[in-house]
Specification:
Layout: H1 3-67, H2 76-88, E1 94-99, E2 102-106, E3 122-123, E4 129-134, E5 144-149, E6 152-156, E7 171-176, E8 181-185, H3 190-198, E9 203-204, E10 208-215, E11 218-225, H4 226-237, H5 245-263, H6 265-274, E12 278-287, E13 292-303, E14 309-310, H7 312-322, H8 325-346, E15 351-355, H9 358-363, H10 366-374, E16 384-389, H11 396-409, E17 412-418, H12 425-430, E18 435-438, H13 440-443, H14 455-465, E19 469-472, H15 478-486, E20 491-492, E21 501-502, H16 503-517
Parallel strand pairs: 13-15, 15-16, 16-17, 17-18, 18-19, 19-20
Antiparallel strand pairs: 1-2, 1-6, 3-4, 4-5, 5-6, 7-8, 7-11, 9-10, 10-11, 12-13, 12-20, 12-21, 13-14
GO molecular function: cyclic-guanylate-specific phosphodiesterase activity
InterPro entries: CSS-motif_dom, Cyclic-di-GMP_PDE-like, EAL_dom, EAL_sf
Membrane topology: Multi-pass membrane protein
């Protein structure tokens, strides 16, 4: 072989050795970037579907509740009832009563001018008519989303459907499965949206990356610019050198991993924990026989820096799966003492219930945390009630050890949402509990003919046989309260009495209750020979 030929072959192999790793790194960086962006868009679309289903469900519930009204149309009682629906339904901005196509009254009162009902763009499978663009007077010309059912229509801000965390370069659209566009964010490409409505898919084209999600008659489409992705990728490629291709590829992967972590729900939740963005609202607990407010259940709320609140059902499951729930529980404990410490010290008959996760019940690690929070606060251990769902008691041996230690320290312990989880009667018999809380799903069936309506009296009988205090959750109608009181249920909570309140509003509610009904009884607690009796009102 001639020297020049050897040099040529060696040069080619050297070039290939230098070029191939770089090409592989470029290809890998593009593949990873595209995959991660598609994943982010998919999650954004799925979250938007969840928000849409929530808003539509709340609007449907409001319509069907209004349809049950027996008031004289447009009487003061009727208008007040519609106003209460609007106030208590987050996704509803206004509700109106129509006769034919003419608006007779709304939650604002009777219209001063004639207002027509307009046409529906489509009707859902549940019989709800939807108008994609309604321009009512109250919105100052801004288009609203209208839902109608029989004689009633409600208005919803379409922005609620796309109220998600998204960069300005991310575009989002919500449409019905019939192709009607109902909400959008950041002006998505109309032609692309139309094509994706007709053929839902996740992928890329010459200009865009896109992802779709479907559910309950809705389609969510999230898109971002391919050019912007290429621009970002180009900056990263400048860091790649032939001798550092592998290191540079790892750095690109790390950058995208960190970006994904920051934009993902878990990443947001982790940052919220670090920034201590969780606050506590308090659901009053009422002694049903007397109407006395004896305490409250501490309910965690995630308040973003902009002041908006994230629904607990959107982050609690993720917190439990990721293990962040323990840090959130610790923040709740600190919040309770900070918010209500002086009130608890001033009135020993008041108690606050704190929800524990399954891991806390299994490990018992939360008990020293509570004791440390109570130290030097003046709050008695007996004034802190602990609650856990049935899932927390699956490991009966560990749960029993934790409960016994908690009660030795002075806490009362309740099983929450009874009947919806995993515990059997044998579990309950084996655990030294103080109280049993009947889940709202069973209370909802009171007065109705349903498959679960007969379960509630059995749960009450079980609690009585085990000498447990009984708490009914989610009481919304006087009929439910009367039924439960007649069957010996001692305590109740729900919107019939009050929604969950921020600390200042709960304190005002409690003081009002005390003025009207008098001081509360002693802290709820079954007698235990080895534990001193609970402290009563000073």
């Amino acid at each position: 072989m001639e020297r020049s030929h050897i040099v040529a072959v060696t040069s080619v192999l050297a070039a290939l050795g230098a070029i191939l790793p770089i090409v592989a790194a470029f290809y890998l960086s593009w593949s990873v970037a595209t995959s991660r962006e598609e994943t982010r868009l998919s999650r954004l679309a799925e979250y938007a579907i969840m928000r849409t289903n929530t808003a539509f469900g709340e609007a449907t519930s409001a319509l069907k509740s209004a349809d049950q009204f027996s008031f004289t149309p447009c009487s003061q009682q009727h208008i007040a009832a519609m106003r209460a629906l609007v106030v208590n339904t987050r996704s509803v901005e206004d509700i109106g009563y129509f006769e034919g196509d003419a608006l007779k009254c709304s939650s604002w009162g009777k219209p001063e001018t004639s207002v027509g009902r307009g046409q529906v763009d489509f009707t859902t499978a549940s019989g709800i008519g939807v108008s994609a663009r309604v321009h009512p007077t109250i919105s100052n010309g801004r288009a609203m989303l209208g839902f109608r059912y029989r004689s009633y229509s409600v208005l919803t801000d379409p922005a609620r459907l796309v109220d998600v965390l998204a960069t300005p370069d991310t575009r989002l659209a919500i449409a019905s499965d019939t192709g009607t566009l109902v909400s959008e964010l950041n002006n998505p490409d109309a032609s692309l949206i139309k094509r994706l409505i007709e053929h839902t898919q996740t992928g890329t084209d010459a200009d865009n990356l896109f992802a779709t999600a479907t559910g309950s008659g809705w389609i969510a489409i999230a898109t971002s610019s391919r050019a912007l992705l290429l621009k970002d990728l180009g900056r990263e490629r400048l860091l790649l050198l032939p001798l550092g291709a592998i290191v540079a590829a790892l750095m690109v992967g790390l950058v995208f991993w960190l970006s994904r972590r920051r934009l993902s729900p878990l990443g947001e939740l982790s940052i919220a924990v670090q920034r201590r963005e969780f606050i506590v609202h308090y659901q009053p607990l009422i002694e049903m026989k007397t109407g006395i407010c004896v305490g409250a259940e501490a309910l965690v709320r995630w308040r973003r820096p902009d002041g908006s609140l994230v629904r607990p059902d959107t982050f609690i499951p993720l917190a439990e799966e990721s293990g962040l729930i323990q840090a959130i529980t610790d923040q709740v404990i600190g919040g309770v003492i900070k918010d209500l410490g002086p009130v608890l010290v001033a009135d020993r008959s008041l108690h606050i219930a704190i929800n524990l996760s399954a891991d806390d019940i299994k490990s018992g690690r939360v008990l020293p945390v509570i004791q440390a929070a109570l130290a030097n606060s003046g709050v008695l251990t007996e004034q802190i009630w602990l609650e856990a769902t049935e899932r927390g008691f699956m490991d009966v041996k560990s749960a029993r050890a934790t409960i016994e230690e908690a009660r030795r320290l002075g806490h009362s312990v309740a099983i929450d949402d009874f009947g919806t989880g995993y515990s059997s009667l044998q579990y309950i018999q084996d655990l030294p509990l103080d109280a049993l809380k009947i889940d709202k799903s069973f209370i909802d069936t009171v007065g109705l003919v349903s498959a679960t309506s007969a379960v509630t009296p059995h749960i009450i009988d079980i609690a009585k046989s085990l000498n447990l205090y009984i708490v009914a959750e989610g009481i919304e109608r006087q009929e439910q309260a009367d039924y439960l009181l007649a069957r010996g249920v001692q305590y109740g909570q729900g919107w019939l009495y009050s929604k969950a309140l921020p600390a200042p509003e709960f304190i005002a509610f409690y003081n009002d209750s005390k003025r009207v009904h008098g001081a509360g009884p002693t802290v709820i607690r079954r007698d235990i020979p080895e534990v001193p009796p609970a402290v009563g009102g000073d």
